[in-house]
């Protein structure tokens, strides 16, 4: 698996967290399917070659992604079926950027994914044109940057939402909502309303997703055993950790590790960089 992240230039850093690319190789496929892990973000994803079949068991839907799509925030892992050498390029947007670019908030988008032309038709046309010309990844990112720069949009960031996102990532998902509201002297319902509007998550849902990503990072890349990871991540006990892990993936950590999934490593690697984007 070749996964790379690219920092956006300063002029669009208020809109884009990062660009990322990924190519899967034959030895990445240990099972007939893989998982996409929720990471708290919203991405425009472009298939540079090939396609994949995405299966959302929670909503009993299955659909083919063969061009470009907009993936909204979601809470449970979804199965994907891909071919070797499938390459994709994506833009990971900041939450407040979506409303500024589209006039629609993440809280209003109730499907796990949309064809990109329904959300950002100009962006879909731009990138698909470059893909048809077989432009390089670097050239497509350059074109994306130019398109976003020309928009000259300044999103109206919500200070409460931004601060909660920052504290959640800094604390690896262990932020206390009650304490947070007390520090800022805001009512819990105010936080929840604003957070859902901008991110598509409730604060509790977002905290669980971020915590899971840090947990997955430790499980996949740390030499620590599950007991050590459990307490480092602030779980009451190992059964609590396993229960939360199963809610997102549908299996326990040991089975997950044994199956040697590849795509979840993207989320596990990306979460370690999130604090750098703040």
Automatic annotation (TrEMBL):
Q: Which organism is it from?
A: Rhodohalobacter sulfatireducens
Query: SUPFAM superfamilies in the record, alphabetically?
Result: Homeodomain-like
Domain named HTH araC/xylS-type: which ranges?
Answer: 159-259
Keywords, comma-separated and alphabetical: DNA-binding, Transcription, Transcription regulation
- The protein depicted here goes by the name Helix-turn-helix transcriptional regulator
Q: Classify the source by domain of life.
A: Bacteria
| Stored InterPro entries | AraC_XylS_family_regulators, DUF6597, Homeodomain-like_sf, HTH_AraC
């Amino acid at each position: 698996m070749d996964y790379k992240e690219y920092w956006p230039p300063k002029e669009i850093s208020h809109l884009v967290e990062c660009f990322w690319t990924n190519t899967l190789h034959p030895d990445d496929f240990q099972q007939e399917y893989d998982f996409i892990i929720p990471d708290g973000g919203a991405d425009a994803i472009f298939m540079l070659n090939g396609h994949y079949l995405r299966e959302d068991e929670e909503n009993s839907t299955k659909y083919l992604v063969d061009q470009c799509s907009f993936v909204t925030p979601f809470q449970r892992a979804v199965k994907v079926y891909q071919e070797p050498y499938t390459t994709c390029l994506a833009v990971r947007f900041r939450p407040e950027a979506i409303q500024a670019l589209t006039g629609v908030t993440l809280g209003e988008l109730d499907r796990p994914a949309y064809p990109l032309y329904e959300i950002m038709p100009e962006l879909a046309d731009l990138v698909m044109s470059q893909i048809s010309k077989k432009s390089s990844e670097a050239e497509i990112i350059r074109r994306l940057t130019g398109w976003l720069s020309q928009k000259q949009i300044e999103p109206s960031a919500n200070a409460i939402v931004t601060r909660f996102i920052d504290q959640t990532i800094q604390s690896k998902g262990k932020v206390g909502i009650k304490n947070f509201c007390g520090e800022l002297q805001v009512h819990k319902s105010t936080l929840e309303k604003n957070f859902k509007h901008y991110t598509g998550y409730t604060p509790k849902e977002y905290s669980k997703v971020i915590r899971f990503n840090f947990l997955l990072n430790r499980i996949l890349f740390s030499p620590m055993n599950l007991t050590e990871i459990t307490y480092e991540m602030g779980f009451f006990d190992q059964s609590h950790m396993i229960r939360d892990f199963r809610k997102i993936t549908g299996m326990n950590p040991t089975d997950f590790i044994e199956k040697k999934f590849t795509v979840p490593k993207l989320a596990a690697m990306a979460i370690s960089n999130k604090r750098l984007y703040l």
